[in-house]
Amino acid sequence: MNWELINKIRRFCRTSWIKSTYFNFSMLPFAQAIRMPIILSRYTYFYSLSGHIRLTSPAKFGMIRFGYFGEDVITPKDTRTLLQIEGDLILSSNVHFGNGVIIRIEPNAQLEIETNVKISNKTKIICYDNIRICHDTRIAWECQIIDTTFHYMRNIVTNTVSDLTSPIVIGAHNWIGNRVNVMKGAIIPDYTIVAAGSLCNRHYSHDEKSLIAGTPAKLVKSGIYRCLDQEESEIRQAKGLA
Q1: What is the DSSP string of 153-216?
Q2: pLDDT score for 10
Q3: pLDDT of res. 234
Q4: Which of 41, 139, 200, 207 has its CA 20 to 30 A from that of 169?
Q5: Bridge-partner residues for 212, per DSSP?
Q6: Which residues are CB-neighbours of 125 under 8 A, at least 6 positions away?
Q7: How far is CA 184 from the centre of its chain?
Q8: Phi and psi at residue 214, in whole multiples of 5°?
């Protein structure tokens, strides 16, 4: 049985062409929207679309998808994808969001996601300032990426008030494990693995190709990175698993 074909048919049937058409023509210039670069499942809902979307790659059909990644760990009907875009959303090609992803971009905030990024189910991205997710990064399910504390906090000794927001940068070729919290001010270098359940809340200065873990996260091991795409396929073939 050709399961790859069956899954393609399932995804096609799960697509809301009405929502996808409305979303593209509402958020993109006509010359880009006519190519339908953004595809939405029927379980994707809009809270607000008063912001802007900018594409950094030439528009191609279906290069950005909401509600089509990580079907092996959750069924689409279990949860809804919610979009609140009141600031700027910058997207590149081959960006896929899983089921139940929540994206909230406040006015004057900017969320940038570079090419070949996959964000799995039930991940929340809340952007009050600036969040950048660099190319070839994978983010597992139930993560939280939040660049604000939502409320001010005062130090009663120094009488100082902490900043409400601070930018987040998740480097290229990162692997963010499930249920990781990436909080305001987190800067994660390229080729970093973040272990499941970790808390990232500072500017990390470790070398590339490292593993960090813990609450808060700290360097655990160097000289390691996750294999992706072509490299992973070559390894599977060499092991006879392809």
Answers
A1: -B-TTT--B--SB--EEE-TT-EE-TT-EE-TT-EE-SSEEE-TT-EE-SB--PPSSEEEETTT
A2: 74
A3: 85
A4: 41
A5: 194, 219
A6: 101, 102, 103, 104, 111, 119, 131, 145, 146
A7: 16
A8: 115, 175
The alpha carbon of residue 53 and the mean position of all alpha carbons in its chain are separated, in whole angstroms, by 15
Q: Is the pLDDT of residue 78 over 80?
A: no
Contact 23, 58 (CB under 8 A): no
How confident is the model at residue 230, as a pLDDT? Answer: 86
Longest dimension (CA), the chain: 68
CB atoms near residue 136 (< 10 Å):
20
118-168 residue pLDDT tens: 999 999 999 999 999 999 999 999 999 999 999 999 999 999 998 999 999
Q: Which two tokens stand for residue 51?
A: 């912001």
Closest-CA residue to 22 (of 42, 1, 4): 42
Which backbone phi and psi does 150 adopt, to 5 degrees? Answer: 70, -35
Give yes or no for a contact between 136 and 112, defined as CB atoms under 8 angstroms apart: no
Write the CB contacts of 17 (distance below 8 Å, at least 6 apart in sequence). Answer: none
Classified as helix, coil or strand, 242 is coil
Whole-angstrom distance, CA of residue 110 vs CA of residue 90: 8
The predicted model scores a pTM of: 0.93
**Alpha helical stretches, state H, the chain:** 3-14, 17-27, 30-33, 229-238
